[in-house]
């Protein structure tokens, strides 16, 4: 039996005109801004302000009010230098810019010779311009504490995030269900268009894959409330991630993670009479690398990473089934995920940047006991199947400063994820109620194949105005051409 659902070419168009905090101006970056003044608090127009990072230096002059702004900064550490003729030079080091943050630095230059003065005061850790509730999680934090191997395992570090009750890849945020969140990576949505999950999804197996491996992430931001209107697609939380990028210094790493089933404590077995098989061990291993560096110093950079993950779950027939039916199986379910990520960044001028990112998690579950019920029938091979799942993503971005008061940001992205199950035995599934322990026999029964696609176009403009204070006007158009095709089937003859 075969049923098909086709949802293709459905556009979603959103127009945005809002007065919002400046923190919303860049989806994948942050901002350093501030004022250069003299000891009496008077502004110093025309002061030279320079910031330096792994991706080079940027320099601007302060305006009539002595103010400066560096938008579209890659999350990381920056050094700042401010100088003005006839005044000392001030330096501030290790200014931390986080995803979607606005860091304010106030610089005081005293009259005198051009000696250097180190600014020891730290930038504020709390952005008072934003009412957003949530947390920003850095790659250093994720690497330094015990977490799982997916970005979803880091989300529990944010407030209002709990187990979603569906699977660990889609947590409940601020009371929503696990499938009502929005997941963004490098400015593009990676949500499944049929179910809303992070990456591929199946009715039988739930969420599969990782969406993106956290080893490739620079920062993860979880917004659980109070976020800006441009993120209105989220009925639950908004999860924003930015991938790592290269810099002026070549660097890389080689790593492996191992989880041994033999080192696990004994797993508690459910006494539920409906349970027909138990997981008695999980073994996982992955071997990966990441590397990045300059193509042209201060102008162009690259980053690449690859991390295949191999997982084996061992299941055993439940005691009540084994005792009644006279068989006991111990079966290994094997799956492999080929996580990858790469990006290129080119800055033709200090005010403009172009980037291209690609990442994905194509995966395969080898023909075998992918379903737990294979351990609960006399012939396990009748319940064998092969899985193909995961996704591919590519996103191109342009960020630029049109003038001191106008910013522009453009995005073109494509997301595709798929889930496909191929049963080994094409026989109808039945249920034997007459047995001492009722159970299924025959093929796997229901199975599916679905494909989710989303082509995304977005352009945003930011305008800063002064008059009775500073105001930020934000204009934008977002267009998504989404597709979802699903085929549901049952083993056995059709009709």
UniProtKB/TrEMBL annotation:
This is TonB-dependent receptor. Its main location: membrane. Keywords: Cell outer membrane, Membrane, Receptor, Signal, Transmembrane, Transmembrane beta strand, Transport. Residues 1-24 form the signal peptide. Gene3D superfamilies: Carboxypeptidase-like, regulatory domain, TonB-dependent receptor, beta-barrel domain. InterPro entries: Beta-barrel_TonB_sf, CarboxyPept-like_regulatory, Oar-like_b-barrel, TonB-dep_rcpt-like. It comes from Eiseniibacteriota bacterium. GO terms for cellular component: cell outer membrane. It is a multi-pass membrane protein. The keyword Protein biosynthesis does not apply. PANTHER family: OAR PROTEIN, TONB-DEPENDENT OUTER MEMBRANE RECEPTOR. GO terms for biological process: siderophore transmembrane transport. GO terms for molecular function: siderophore uptake transmembrane transporter activity. It is found in: Cell outer membrane. Residues 242-310 form the TonB-dependent transporter Oar-like beta-barrel domain. The keyword Transport applies.
């Amino acid at each position: 039996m075969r049923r098909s659902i086709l949802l293709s070419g459905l556009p979603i168009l959103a127009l945005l005109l809002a007065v919002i905090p400046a923190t919303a101006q860049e989806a994948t970056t942050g901002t350093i801004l501030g004022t250069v003044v003299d000891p009496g608090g008077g502004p110093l127009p025309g002061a030279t302000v320079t910031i330096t990072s792994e991706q080079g230096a940027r320099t601007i002059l302060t305006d009539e009010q002595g103010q400066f702004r560096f938008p579209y900064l890659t999350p990381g550490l920056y050094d700042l230098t401010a100088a003005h003729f006839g005044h000392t030079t001030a330096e501030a080091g290790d200014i931390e810019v986080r995803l979607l943050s606005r860091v304010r630095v106030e610089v005081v230059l005293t009259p005198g010779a051009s000696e250097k003065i180190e600014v020891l005061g730290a930038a504020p850790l709390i952005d008072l311009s934003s009412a957003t509730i949530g947390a920003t999680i850095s790659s250093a934090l994720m690497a330094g504490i015990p977490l799982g191997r997916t970005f979803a395992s880091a989300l529990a570090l944010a407030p209002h995030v709990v187990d979603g009750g569906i699977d660990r890849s889609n947590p409940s945020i601020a009371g929503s269900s696990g499938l009502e969140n929005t997941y963004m990576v490098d400015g593009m949505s990676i949500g499944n268009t049929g179910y809303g999950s992070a990456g591929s999804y199946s009715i039988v197996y739930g969420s599969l894959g990782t969406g993106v491996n956290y080893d490739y992430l620079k920062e993860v931001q979880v917004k659980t409330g109070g976020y800006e209107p441009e993120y209105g697609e989220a009925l639950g939380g908004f999860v924003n991630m930015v991938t790592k990028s290269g810099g002026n210094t070549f660097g890389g790493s080689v790593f492996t993670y191992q989880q041994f089933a033999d080192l696990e404590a004994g797993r508690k077995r459910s006494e539920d009479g409906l349970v027909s098989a138990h997981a008695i061990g999980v073994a996982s291993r992955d071997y990966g690398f990441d590397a990045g560096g300059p193509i042209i110093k201060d102008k162009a950079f690259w980053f690449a990473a690859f991390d295949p993950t191999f997982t084996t779950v061992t299941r055993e027939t439940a005691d009540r089934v084994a005792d009644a039916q006279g068989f006991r199986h111990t079966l290994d379910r094997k799956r492999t995920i080929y996580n990858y990520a790469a990006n290129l960044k080119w800055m033709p001028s200090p005010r403009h940047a172009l980037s291209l990112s690609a990442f994905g998690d194509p995966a395969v579950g080898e023909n075998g006991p992918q379903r737990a019920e294979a351990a609960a029938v006399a012939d396990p091979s009748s319940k064998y199947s092969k899985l193909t799942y995961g996704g591919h993503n590519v996103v191109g971005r342009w960020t630029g400063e049109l003038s001191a008061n106008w910013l522009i940001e453009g995005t073109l992205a494509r997301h595709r994820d798929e889930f496909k199950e191929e049963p080994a035995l094409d026989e109808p599934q039945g249920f034997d109620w007459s047995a001492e322990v009722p159970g299924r026999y025959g093929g796997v029964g229901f199975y599916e194949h679905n494909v989710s696609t989303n082509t995304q176009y977005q352009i945003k403009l930011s305008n800063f105005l002064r008059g009775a204070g500073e105001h930020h006007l934000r204009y934008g158009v977002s267009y998504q051409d989404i597709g979802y095709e699903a085929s549901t089937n049952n083993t056995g003859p059709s009709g």
